[in-house]
From TrEMBL, chain A:
Binds 1 FAD per dimer. Its cofactor is FAD. Residues 6-201 form the Electron transfer flavoprotein alpha/beta-subunit N-terminal domain. This is Electron transfer flavoprotein alpha/beta-subunit N-terminal domain-containing protein. SUPFAM superfamilies: Adenine nucleotide alpha hydrolases-like, DHS-like NAD/FAD-binding domain.
From TrEMBL, chain B:
Belongs to the ETF beta-subunit/FixA family. The lineage of its organism: Bacteria, Pseudomonadati, Pseudomonadota, Alphaproteobacteria, Hyphomicrobiales. Keywords: Electron transport, Transport. This is Electron transfer flavoprotein alpha/beta-subunit N-terminal domain-containing protein. GO terms for molecular function: electron transfer activity. Residues 23-215 form the Electron transfer flavoprotein alpha/beta-subunit N-terminal domain. Pfam families: ETF (PF01012). The keyword Electron transport applies.
């Protein structure tokens, strides 16, 4: 019987986002259970036997292509493997993590299959015979509940620490050979590891991060002053790297560093998915933003709506006076 | 070198759009629009490549009449031509239809390089560029942060982002498409004067409906309902005067033992 199984493309290795696998499998298991189908995981990389074995505990089957030649991400080769798997098992859905590689592959597969792409899903709802996906629109200011009519569902699933898959045990791990794509118009040259300079923000207990709302570069001194007062480190969100103030080693987010400090203070950060991905597992999250509708307040524990230039010096002074008291 | 870039006209970043009564769309009336942010990065990259390799840059927008404003921004930045694919019925929200129309336009123009932004700020889908390349049968690299074109070899060395700060370098045959990541190069400020002046530049306009394009779509995504995101309820908002809010905040953090 076809069209009941779910394929999940998991990630392992350099530049891949292994942390996204759990939420992905949870979503896949929900869809598959609704259809009475299986979850089949595809994994392509180098030296990934351990991850494959671990994933086998949570899915029905893992197809793993583990070879040195898969060390660099080769989109057309992986796409070929996905297409082959789709033909073989005729799934109702193919799911990816909402990551750099997941988005790349999902869009490619969706274009090949001529289906809509449901990217960036934060929840899957299966009720009364209908399946809906929840995803943000308009920079996260509006949520959309979407359905797909006809064809295979291709979706990317946001990472969430709250969604851990149930342990199934006994999933088969099957080694497969994945051939290079015949189309060699895209040739991977090398994977470049991030250059880590200065402070490792991933190791800090307290992170004070500034975003676009900081405004002028000299205002960032206020973020640094607060970081110093609380004994933490300063960091930033993506826009400040894009405009050249900082390098990506200071950046918290999907394309920067994932941090889990006991205290995270977000200053003038709106809370785009890219950023939230890298800090939402923090112990206590404080958000300061002039926009009361900023998505960051949805994941924060404590929020203040107001002007950073006024609030940050006040907080720094208050912290200092508390410490000396 | 013939370079084509796409720019979408999307609701401005500052405001939360009002959800329409049907809950399946937003109220467009009174909404402010702007050129999509990553598309501006795509335009800057296109102009840089023209600077290095000579040639022309054509900017294309697909959308209702108001979308011409996105082309005024593109002209103010320095593109050579502007093309507007006017969508009356679909409001430019049907990606498959947009891709089919875009493919017609670029085939007619001819091209060596196409740059699009990585995703549009309204639908946050991230499909258009990749689907366009697939439709055209040309190679595509997504999340691109650097492009070095070797015009004689008809190839480019392109760097893309991976997760966790990793990057990957590819060699790609031209013609190709790159979906451009934020920050590929600085977006220069366009003055109001330059944008006003750009309004007099000629925009080649064609109607999507008149192009008689059928989308190649095998499936269709439909919006069942739009809603405003709910706060998790866990966020304690500290209202009141700034000094008071700050005192409460710091007392809270001390109590939690985090500072």
């Amino acid at each position: 019987m076809g069209s009941i199984d779910v394929v999940v493309y998991c990630e392992a290795g350099a530049g891949q986002t292994e942390a996204s696998n759990a939420s992905l499998i949870t979503a896949g298991a929900k869809l598959a259970a609704n259809q009475g189908g299986r979850v089949v995981c595809l994994l392509v990389g180098n030296d990934i036997a351990e991850v494959a074995g671990e994933l086998g505990q949570y899915v029905d089957e893992v197809r793993v292509a583990d070879a040195p030649r898969h060390a660099d991400y080769d989109p057309l080769t992986v796409l070929g493997a996905l297409q082959k798997l789709v033909v073989e098992i005729d799934p109702c859905a193919v799911l990816f993590g909402h990551t750099h590689i997941g988005m790349d592959l999902a869009a490619r597969l969706s274009a090949k299959l001529g289906t809509s792409l449901i990217s960036n899903c934060f929840d899957v709802q299966c009720e009364a015979g209908a399946t809906h996906f929840l995803r943000p629109m308009y920079r996260g200011r509006v949520n959309a509940k979407v359905a797909v009519e006809g064809g295979i569902i291709v979706a990317t699933i946001q990472q969430s620490g709250a969604r851990q898959p149930d342990l199934k045990g006994g999933g088969q791990v099957i080694a497969i050979e994945v051939e290079y794509a015949e189309d060699r118009r895209i040739r991977p040259l090398k994977t470049i590891a991030p250059t880590r300079s200065g402070v490792d923000i991933a190791k800090a207990d307290i992170v004070v991060a500034g975003g676009r709302g900081v405004g002028e570069k000299e205002n960032f001194a206020l973020v640094e002053a607060l970081a110093a007062a609380v004994g933490g480190v300063s960091a930033c969100s993506r826009p400040l790297v894009d405009i050249g103030w900082f390098t990506s080693s200071s950046q918290v987010g999907l394309s920067g560093t994932t941090v889990k400090p006991k205290l995270y203070i977000a200053c003038g950060i709106s809370g785009a998915v890219e950023h939230v991905h890298g800090m939402k597992e923090s112990g206590t999250i404080v958000a300061i933003n002039k926009d009361p509708d900023a998505p960051i307040f949805r994941i924060a524990d404590i929020g203040i709506v107001g002007d950073l230039l006024e609030l940050l010096p006040l907080i720094t002074t208050e912290v200092k006076s508390t410490r000396t008291a | 070198m013939k370079i084509i870039t796409f720019v979408k006209h999307v609701p401005s970043s500052g405001a939360t759009p009002r959800i329409a009564v049907t809950k399946r769309g937003i109220e467009e009336e009174g909404l402010a629009y702007e050129a999509n942010e990553t598309d501006l990065y795509a335009i800057e990259e296109a102009l840089y490549q023209r600077f290095v390799h000579q040639g022309t840059v054509t900017a294309v927008t697909i959308g209702p009449r108001r979308a011409q404003a996105a082309l005024h921004v593109a002209y103010a930045k320095g593109v050579d031509h502007g093309i507007h694919v006017l969508t009356e019925g679909s409001h430019g929200t049907d990606t498959a239809l947009n891709v089919a129309a875009a493919a017609e336009v670029v085939k007619k123009q001819g091209f060596d390089l196409i740059f699009t932004g990585i995703q549009a700020d309204d639908d946050l889908q991230g499909l258009f560029g990749i689907a366009l390349a697939e439709h055209l049968g040309i190679p595509v690299i997504s999340a691109v942060t650097q492009v070095n074109v070797s015009a004689d070899k008809k190839t480019a060395v392109v760097t893309r982002e991976l997760g966790g700060g990793y990057k990957e370098e590819f060699e790609v045959d031209l013609p190709c498409l790159c979906t451009v990541q934020f920050g590929i190069r600085p977006v220069r400020y366009s003055s109001i004067m330059a944008i006003v002046k750009a309004r007099s530049r000629k925009i080649e306009s064609m109607s999507l409906e008149a192009m008689k394009i059928a989308s190649r779509q095998a499936s269709r995504m439909s919006i069942a309902e739009l809603s405003y995101p709910e706060n998790s309820g866990q966020c304690q908002m500290l209202d009141g005067a700034p000094a008071e809010a700050v005192r409460t905040l710091v007392a809270n953090l001390v109590e939690k033992g985090v500072i």
